[in-house]
Specification:
Layout: H1 3-6, E1 15-16, E2 25-26, H2 29-33, E3 41-45, H3 49-56, E4 61-64, H4 68-71, H5 83-96, E5 101-105, H6 115-129, E6 133-137, H7 143-150, E7 156-161, H8 167-170, H9 182-195, E8 199-203, H10 207-216, E9 221-224, E10 232-235, H11 237-240, H12 257-273
Parallel strand pairs: 3-4, 3-10, 4-5, 5-6, 6-7, 7-8, 8-9, 9-10
Antiparallel strand pairs: 1-2
Helix pairs in contact: 3-5, 5-6, 6-7, 7-9, 9-10
The structure holds 3-methyl-2-oxobutanoic acid.
Length: 287
Amino acid sequence: MSTRSTISKKAAITEPDQSGGVGRKRMTVPAFMARKGAEPLVCLTSYTAHVARICDEVCDLLLVGDSLGMVIHGMPNTLGVTLEHMIMHGQAVVRGADKSLVVVDMPFGSFEESPETAFRNASRVIKETGCHAIKLEGGRDMAPTIRYLARRGIPVMAHIGLMPQAMNTAGGYKAVRDEAAFEAVISDAKAVEEAGAFSVVVEGVAAPLADAITHAVSIPTIGIGASANCDGQILVFEDMVGLMPRVPTFVKRYGTMEEMMCAAVAQYADEVRQRNFPGEEHTYKKK
Ligand code: KIV
């Protein structure tokens, strides 16, 4: 039984928000799947409630990505991220979003050992955060795990192509650009779809490969460094607003947040030193 068939196309409508927001509709897994080949899906990472509140206004999906290890915690890569990190940030993002589908990444070491281990950890993520789905890295190798989770009520977003958690075996972060490697990634895409993934992140692949994958599967492909030939796009929020000092070539910076923050902090420091802050208007008067 393919889990895709258990997610009714008829249910492909947004459901009333359960969190009480008036007139707001929550994106659902079936509604997300129904956008295959239609209006592009807008996805961003979020790790905190206030960023989630901002992104939730325009996004279809918020990903609590394990990239938070680097972006928030200053780690050198994602390998040190724990289930506890993901749960804590997942809780914050769920509190900040009442419209987008919220997906939490499974960190390295939390799902690879066996489908049973993956279920135990993924169900903890769902229970303790209130998120709607999980994401895990892996193609054909992870298909049995994806099938196990999807059949037990856990929607899975797969992640193929460049897989950051495999950086040690791959010898770094290597985009898939060599045509000889295309067939293996297409097989990964087909395997995760067949196993019941509701969508697949395609990271760091050449444009013709992204196009081939998007045509080979009937689930939405969400690209990052994978050209416009996908059903949607995802970026790391801090990369695209200009908060990270260095970003990969595939990132477009839509803002200059670091400069704005530096200017604000410098002005604050200056005003404190000059005794210009706090002013009268920021001071409690005696009753
Ligand atoms: O961890 C992450 O942020 C991700 C996205 C970049 C897809 O996996």
